[in-house]
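Morning, I've got a small favour to ask if you have a moment. I owe you a coffee for this, so here goes:
>
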Amino acid sequence: MLERWRAAGLLGPALLTLVTLPVLLVLGTWQLQRLGWKQDLIAKLEARVAAEPVSYTSVLAEFHKSSPDLNTGDVEYMRVRVTGTFDHAEERHVYAPRSSSQGWNVFTLLKPEGGQPPVYVNRGWVPFSGYRDRLPDVSLTDTEQPVTVTGRVDTLPVEGMASGHSAPPAGAAWPKVTSFPHTGEIGAALGHPVEERQVLLDPSMPDGYVRSWLPPGVPPERHYSYAAQWWLFAATVGVLYGLLNLHKVNR
């Protein structure tokens, strides 16, 4: 039988199919596992968002003590409050792109009370005006009094690939435009370090723009389609193998 398949040129395609089919089936099953993981994650994040805000300073201190590697999984989307003053000396805002539409997210530096490193508050999205050198006016009117803001803790955005990334010029006037606000580059532009997380400003807070904060990653429903695609690939491989090769056995 083996010699007959080898003579008919079926052995190679058969082995390839036997290797490929399990891989595709496993990938489909893995996507369903990812679906369950994403649903659990969203439930956890929704519970954090619904909770009463806690002190950002205390969260930050506990975070640094327990997670020196800066893994934010335990504090991601935790709802916090932070009191401090916005840096209005030169209206220091940084714009970063929003991938889903033409426009910017507005990051404004907040200096917390107690000497903690400055943190960026993401005040939401403003539409692209059509000119990169004509930025919208996002200045704040109250430039002296401390403010208390509430929002969700998140990491600063990270691009998938470094190509096309543009750091904010250190000597350029504020506000600055950047592809992604890396803390090292922002710290160099400011002349002092900044915190490696952002606070996503609550939609109920004033002085913000469009704030539709979505959980990280793809929507859970997308994993259904990914699983179906892998299984469809597996079925296609099996059908093609049968149509193109099995008839050769009877020759």
The chain is about 35% helix and 20% strand. The chain has two domains: 2-40+220-250, 78-201. The first strand starts at residue 54 and ends at 55.
